[in-house]
Design a protein that fits this description.
Length: about 290
């Protein structure tokens, strides 16, 4: 993947090393659990739909952690992020390429003007328009402030525990979250949220799955239209498909508790995630991503 020659975005808010990102946690806080354990539990919660606070609380009960309040994951003052960090440069270029592609594709295919989202990088925890953002939550898009929140330790844990790793799989994570921004601009997120208000938990989960699979597909649409710039190789694409497969709800739930509960899926099965990412990659068309018609 040739990301070095792509546009570089200026819409990155790097809060790492500011010393102001920590969140005070009370008696039910993270106690003696290390940030690594918290992130792993958060990854499981992020990909399975289980509230990360429940997983963390359960781990505290088992380990006897969880004493008084503490600052969770706060960066130390005086340690600013390295502007030449290769991962930071990758994020700037990937975000810039999403802006360049969607600025052309969204008006051409749907008649909607693209307005860029901001990518917020943080250590441990920070504030967002949707409440507190924590590393344990994994990357997410907040429609209230039009920002994507990411603790980049997520990539390290993806590689260590979920078979991720590589420039294009990392780009796929960002493109998936920007896919949610595209859904927001198209009015899809708002309609889905309204629909879920009067549904059972099972039916609401089914809507969430459709939303997440569509974001996977939109990530593929982006990659297809960016391929002239990115010069993706078959290995790049296979790595991304492998990552999508590794983070399917069925695989993660089975790894976490020995079995899968389809009614609780919120992101889709391994097969579904790989299928929809591939659909977008092959078509390059937003209309191919109608997961609600399936």
């Amino acid at each position: 993947m040739d990301w070095q020659s792509t546009p570089e975005s200026q819409n990155i808010e790097d809060r790492r090393g500011s010393g102001g990102g920590g969140v005070a946690l009370g008696g039910g806080g993270t106690g003696g659990l290390g940030i690594g354990a918290i992130i792993i539990l958060g990854l499981i919660g992020y990909f399975t739909g289980i509230d990360p606070r429940i997983l963390i609380g359960g781990a505290e009960m088992v380990t006897g952690a969880g004493g008084g309040g503490q600052m969770m994951g706060a960066a130390q003052p005086g340690q600013p992020a390295d502007p030449n960090d290769p991962k930071l440069l990758l994020m700037k270029h990937v975000l810039g390429e999403t802006e360049a592609v969607w600025a052309k594709v969204l008006p051409a295919q749907k008649g909607v003007r693209y307005t860029p989202a901001t990518l917020v990088l943080f250590d441990g925890a920070t504030s967002s328009g949707c409440g507190t953002a924590q590393a344990a939550m994994g990357p997410f898009y907040c429609p209230d402030d039009k920002k994507v929140y990411l603790d980049m330790s997520f990539f390290r844990d993806m590689e260590a525990h979920y078979g991720g790793g590589g420039d294009f799989p990392d780009a796929y994570v960002i493109a998936h979250e920007i896919g949610h921004h595209v859904q927001d601009l198209l009015g899809i997120l708002g309609k889905a949220d309204d629909a879920k208000q009067n549904m059972s938990k099972t039916d609401a989960n089914a809507i969430s799955v459709r939303i997440e699979l569509q974001a996977d597909c939109l990530a593929g649409v982006w990659a297809a239209n960016a391929n002239t710039d990115l010069k993706l190789t078959p290995q790049d694409i296979q790595q991304a498909v492998n990552t999508a497969t590794a983070i399917g709800d069925d695989r993660l739930q089975t790894a976490a508790r020995g079995y899968a509960v389809p009614d609780s899926f919120t992101h889709g099965s391994s097969a579904q995630r790989a299928q929809w990412l591939t659909t977008g990659l092959k078509s390059g068309q937003i209309d191919s991503c109608n997961t609600f018609a399936q």
